[in-house]
Specification:
- The structure is a single chain.
- This protein is mainly alpha-helical and 295 residues long.
- Helix 4 packs parallel to helix 5 and helix 5 runs parallel beside helix 6.
- It is rod-shaped and about 245 Å long.
- The termini are far apart.
Length: 295
């Protein structure tokens, strides 16, 4: 009974492995197996297995052990030929897989090299596309730092560089507008209007307040100038009146001087008359003395 159980187990394992092989084997391998596993030995092995299974564990098969060994050996040899064929097929498949793997590897290497070259070229052109606009904006910024706001450039890009270029151009336009307003203010045009871009526009708000303060200061200066002009008119009128009074005083002084001259002339004439009278008196006195001496 134990031998029969082993026989059943071995038969079941062989059947399972055979079915498993046939399920995974290729069509030509299955055909080779079926063509090879035929003949008298295979028929005798199948017949002996069927007889043993039908007889059961309690019945002796009455088969010659040497004959059973021979047909089993023939079956094993046939299976060995199938195994050799499968081994050869496996080697061919492995060789094909190896060749395919090598081709895939070289294709991958070529693809990787092409990708690296393409990446390098793309990186070069990308870096160039980024660096050129940045260089342009850098030169413009350096010129603006030196006071030259007359900067014009164009960057044809829709990425972050293009957005930065547009923002930079808006900044240039803003500074040019502020510079234009400052120039008009420097020329005395206080009608210029500066509208801040936002509440955080420090420069725009400062310009707006400055123009308003300048207008107020100019208005105050104009009022003071009008007051000074009125005071100047009053001073001119007072000076005119003072000039007229001075002229009258000068005329009076001239008249006084003329009267003084006339008085001086009269005094001079009187002095001359007195001198003549003195001389006459002296002559009379001298004559009297001479007469007295003669007496």
């Amino acid at each position: 009974r134990e031998q029969f159980q082993k026989f059943l187990a071995n038969s079941a394992e062989q059947e399972t492995y055979t079915n498993l092989f046939l399920s995974f084997a290729l069509d030509d391998q299955q055909a080779f197996y079926r063509n090879k596993m035929t003949g008298q030995s295979m028929d005798e092995v199948a017949s002996l297995k069927k007889t043993a299974l039908d007889a059961g564990p309690e019945t002796s098969l009455g088969a010659d052990a040497n004959h059973w060994f021979d047909v089993a050996s023939d079956r094993i040899n046939l299976l060995k030929e199938v195994e050799d064929r499968l081994g050869s097929d496996l080697l061919q498949i492995a060789g094909s897989i190896r060749q395919g793997a090598e081709r895939t590897l070289w294709a991958f290497v070529a693809l990787a090299a092409a990708a690296i070259a393409l990446g390098a070229a793309s990186g070069f052109f990308l870096a160039r596309a980024i660096s050129r606009p940045l260089q342009t904006m850098t030169r413009a910024a350096q010129q603006m730092a030196g006071g030259d706001l007359d900067q014009h450039f164009s960057v044809d890009s829709r990425d972050e560089i293009g957005a930065m270029s547009q923002a930079f151009q808006r900044m240039i336009a803003y500074l040019q507008s502020m510079a234009g307003a400052a120039g008009r203010l420097a020329q005395g045009d206080l009608t210029v209007e500066v509208t801040p871009e936002s509440e955080k526009d420090v420069l725009g708000n400062a310009f707006h307040e400055m123009t308003a303060n300048l207008r107020g200061l100019v208005g105050q200066v104009a009022d003071n100038a009008n007051q000074v002009s009125a005071a100047s008119g009053q001073l001119a009128s007072a000076a005119n009146q003072a000039g007229q009074a001075t002229s009258q005083i000068a005329a009076t002084i001239q008249q006084v001087a003329k009267g003084t001259a006339q008085q001086t002339e009269g005094v001079t004439q009187t002095a001359a008359s007195v001198e003549q009278m003195k001389r006459a008196i002296d002559g009379v006195a001298k004559g009297a003395q001479e007469q007295a001496a003669a007496v």
